[in-house]
Structure formats: C-alpha cells, structure tokens
Amino acid sequence: MASPPADDQDVPAPLQTRERPSRLIDIMVALLLLVADAVIVVVAAMLFVMVGMGSTSAHSSPTAHSRDVPVLTWLAIWGFPAVAATSGVVHARLRMPVTAAVQSLFTLACTFLAVIWTRMLLS
C-alpha cells in the first residue's frame, strides 16, 4: 500500500466550526419573530384586561379564585416565558445576535405578563 503524501500528514484535521448565518437571514428571522411575538403579547394583554374586568364583578368571591386555579393554567402562564427564554438561548447558540436580542426582549415581556397574571389569579 502506498503511504499518503508527506504534506498531508503534517496538516491537522480541520475543526468542526459552525458557520454563522448571514446577517440578512438573521434580520429576516428576527422581524418574523418580532411580529409573532407582538401578536402574542397583545393577545395576552387583551386577555388580561378581559379577565380582569370579568373578575371585578360583584357576584364573584375572591377566595374561590385563588384556590381553584388548574395546573394547566399555571403551565400556560409560565410556559410562554420558558419557551421564549429557550428560543433566545437557541438563537444565541446559532450565532444569530439580532434574533437572540428580539427573543430576549420577548422573554422579558412574557415574564412581566406572567407575573401580572399570577398576581391576578392569586388575589
């Protein structure tokens, strides 16, 4: 068998580096997610206002509210910030800084809304 050429033996194997997506793709994905995130935040805020106005009626008792909150409601309320944070980390690992920044801002907005929802449900 023939041995490989001498100059191939001295060159180390190339490292597996992940190429960064183009800046245009990063900005387009960020804009797409920004629109989707804005819709989610607006719908959540509208639900907050509607549920808040509905719970201020005279025939509802405040003690029944805090004890009868299903687990699925808590998962929905705190699931959005968890998914948004995961998305921010994933986009940062994909080396998409604009998209990661948009998702981080969405995480802050979702966390703020989740705290408001939690306070409303526990009051």
Q: Topology, please?
A:
Blueprint: H1 6-10, H2 23-55, H3 62-67, H4 71-93, H5 97-122
Transmembrane segments: 27-51, 71-92, 104-122
Protein name: Integral membrane protein
Keywords: Membrane, Transmembrane, Transmembrane helix
Describe this structure in words.
This protein is 76% helix and 0% strand. The chain starts with 5 loop residues before the first helix and ends with a helix. The chain is mainly α and 123 residues long. The mean pLDDT is 82. It has 5 helices and no strands. The chain is elongated, with a radius of gyration of 24 Å.
Features:
transmembrane helix; membrane; 123 residues; 5 helices; mainly alpha; elongated; Integral membrane protein; transmembrane
User: What structural class do helix, strand and pairing data support?
Assistant: mainly alpha
Element-level helix/strand string: HHHHH
Secondary structure tally, helices: 5
Query: What about the largest sheet?
Result: none
Which whole number gives the mean pLDDT?
A: 82
- SS strand fraction: under 5%
Low-confidence stretches: none
Shape: elongated
- C-alpha-based Rg, rounded: 24 Å
Total beta-strand segments: 0
Q: Specify the helix fraction band.
A: over 70%
- Oligomeric status: single chain
Task: Report, as a whole number of angstroms, the end-to-end distance.
Answer: 81 Å
Write a short abstract of this structure.
Helices cover 76% and strands 0% of the residues. The chain has 123 residues and is mainly alpha-helical. The model has no long low-confidence stretch (mean pLDDT 82).
